[in-house]
Amino acid sequence: MTPNEKDYMDRYIYQVIRRLPKAQRNEVRMELEELISDMYADKGSVEEVLTQLGDPAEFAKQYQNDQQYLIGPEYFETYLWFVKVVLICAAVPILIVSFVNAFSQMAAITSQNAAPAIIRAIAEGLAAGIPNGLLSCVSAFGVVTLIFAIMERKKVQLEMKKAEKWSVEKLSEEKRVVELRWTPKFLEPVPDKKAIISRGDSVVSIVFIVIFSVLLIFAPHFFSAIFTEGETVTTVPIFNLDQWGTILPIFVLSLFIGLVDEILRLVVGVYCKLVMISNIVCGTIQIVLSAIVLKVLPIWNPNFTADIQLALGDNAESAAKFLTYWNAEMVSNGLLFFIVAITLLEIGTTIYKTLRYGASSKK
Amino acid sequence: MGEEKDLLSTLLLELRRGTLTISVLSQMKEPKYGYALVQILEEKGVAIDPNTLYPLLRRLESQGLLESKWETSSAKPRKYYQRTEYGTQIYEQLKAYWQNLSAGMERLLREEEA
């Protein structure tokens, strides 16, 4: 073998083994050196040998018998559906908000400048909406994929533990294996129709969670009182945007936990202990986080009343009437009560359905 | 056309996969190194690509059907594979199953021709 041919062989082997687990590399390298030199002795040309062996990536694939994937076939269909729903929910509101923003800042339309003004507003809407929309889609995709990947890992670990148990039993029986045969007794009862969790049940909460998260992250100013007075548009944000950096993470964490719970529900697909426990834990955390956001953190814009009065000016009368109803403390309490009530209702429903119809031991 | 070819090659691959294991096991009573096995199988009309065979040998070893030894006494180190006792047991069962199956297949296909 000429040095040049030896170099080709080394390159080829490197391309195969770099795709394999570290523990196998050295051994496979030696095997391939043996193979290629044997084939070379037979054919007389390294180029011919390597051509016959074909693409090193394909060769490496033959060595990788373990299935490696992030999200397995069992979850994949649910995952795809989830990604679709989440991407739509992440993109559409951002685009809408961007257009609303652009149009609300548009100069007053007169008959002469109508067309350019509208085109300009559309361009501005697109310019703001597309990058933000993309960013929110990527984040939403990442979050969903991460949750599914973690579930896949956990499930895989469960199955591996099961397999280990069996092999220990096998060993104790002195290699003569008494196979754990599948019998019809292994069949789980068909879950009661009312115990099945359908996508339809979850879609509302998923859409709500994603749209709300996206708006809170990318367009908190969307939650504003908007006044138009002639040509000027005044917006008074409801939230305390100065403190947004501390408030937002907790808000989003709470929504994220809700999303985890929804995904788990859909993946399991039937009311059972696991779903019930997850629902209770996630619900409790969400209540605690909501209480922190609403009662501890300065979530509301402290100047809300003052700003509105300023914005309204002449129409102070109607404003005064409205403002007597605005009481941050009361709004917080009301919202918290609302959230607690809804969460408890959901937990209650889950517990009821699990105990009444659910398969008590899914695993 | 391309699709049809793809389908055919996928089906052929599936059909071959199991037979390769029996072919390899059948030749491993005596220790052999990889490329010698490639040549023997080719001579006997059951050609197998080296890039399929080498990973297959490793897999059969990890399943306990084959065992391997590096022969380092000669100038060129070679890895020799041989059937284990367990491998022989499995091979005998596979062989019996195969003979049964191929007799059955033979009947089926002849029926089709008639």
Structure write-up:
The complex is a heterodimer of chains A (363) and B (114). Chain A folds into three domains: 3-63; 69-153; 188-363, no CATH class. Helices cover 72% and strands 3% of the residues of chain A. A two-stranded antiparallel ribbon of chain A has the order 1-2. With 363 residues, chain A is mainly α. Chain B is α+β, with helices and mostly antiparallel strands and 114 residues long. Chain B has one domain: Arc Repressor Mutant, subunit A (Orthogonal Bundle), CATH 1.10.10. A three-stranded antiparallel β-sheet of chain B has the order 1-3-2. In chain B, a hairpin with a 6-residue loop joins strand 2 and strand 3. In chain B, 22% of the residues are buried. Classes of the chains: A mainly alpha (363), B alpha+beta (114). The A-B interface holds A 28, 30-32, 34-35, 37-39, 42, 52-54, 58-59, 62-63, 65 and B 33-36, 39, 49-52, 54-56, 58-59, 70, 76-79.
The total count of strands of chain A amounts to 2
The coarse silhouette of chain B is globular
Major pleated sheet of chain B:
3 strands, antiparallel
Q: Helical percent range of chain A?
A: over 70%
Average pLDDT of chain A, rounded to a whole number, is 79
The helix-strand sequence of chain A is HHHHHHHEEHHHHH
**General shape of chain A:** flat
SSE sequence of chain B, one letter per element: HEHHEEH
| Biggest sheet character of chain A | 2 strands, antiparallel
CATH class of chain B: Mainly Alpha
Rg calculated over all Cα atoms of chain B: 17 Å
How many domains is the backbone of chain A divided into?
3
Largest sheet, spatial ordering of strands of chain B: 1-3-2
| Uncertain runs of chain A | 174-179
Based on the model shown, name its key terms.
heterodimer; A: mainly alpha; 3 domains; two-stranded antiparallel ribbon; 72% helix; B: 114 residues; Arc Repressor Mutant, subunit A; three-stranded antiparallel sheet; 12% strand; globular
